Amino acid sequence: QVQLVESGGDSVQVGGSLRLTCVASGAPLSSYSMGWFRQAPGRGREVVAYIYATGISTYHHDSVKGRFTISRDNAKNTLYLQMNSLKPEDTAMYYCAADTDYYRIATQTAKYWGQGTQVTVSS
Questions:
Q1: Alpha-carbon distance values, 22 to 42, 53, 76 (Å)
Q2: Fewest CB atoms within 10 A around its CB: which of 40, 80, 102, 115?
Q3: What is the pLDDT of residue 103?
Q4: How do residues 60-113 score in pLDDT, each as one tens digit?
Q5: Is residue 118 within 8 Å of 8, Cβ to Cβ?
Q6: Are residues 70 and 23 in contact, defined by beta-carbon separation less than 8 angstroms?
Q7: Strand-strand pairing, 18-25 and 11-13
Q8: Residue 56 pLDDT class (50, 70, 90 cuts)
Q9: CA-CA distance, 110 to 89, in Å (whole number)?
Q10: Could you give the C-alpha distances from 95 to 23, 50, 114, 123, in angstroms and in order?
Q11: Quick one: pLDDT at residue 55?
Q12: What is the pairing mode between strands 112-113 and 92-99?
């Protein structure tokens, strides 16, 4: 059983930066692909970015390419999302997820999910 706890969400101005952190416990993350997802009020959950267990391969949604960067530190059992040049449309609850199957991350059917951390971007 993997437990995931997100942190780092905050209220920031347009153009600001945040770094989200997802700390895992219960199992070593080195065997898990992981991802960041977000859900804005009144909208469905969407993929933001995901990363293979080895960290070699990543995916970033077009809406965040060049602004957000997903990374991981398996030694610390931690996943990160560096968010730069934030826009109001980035406002959402952000969730991390983990699964041994990369496809389940990509399709948002991952086995393990965190509780989320709120990001609010105001102009």
A1: 24, 14, 10
A2: 115
A3: 95
A4: 999 999 999 999 999 999 999 999 999 999 999 999 999 999 999 999 999 999
A5: no
A6: no
A7: unpaired
A8: confident
A9: 25
A10: 12, 12, 6, 23
A11: 80
A12: antiparallel
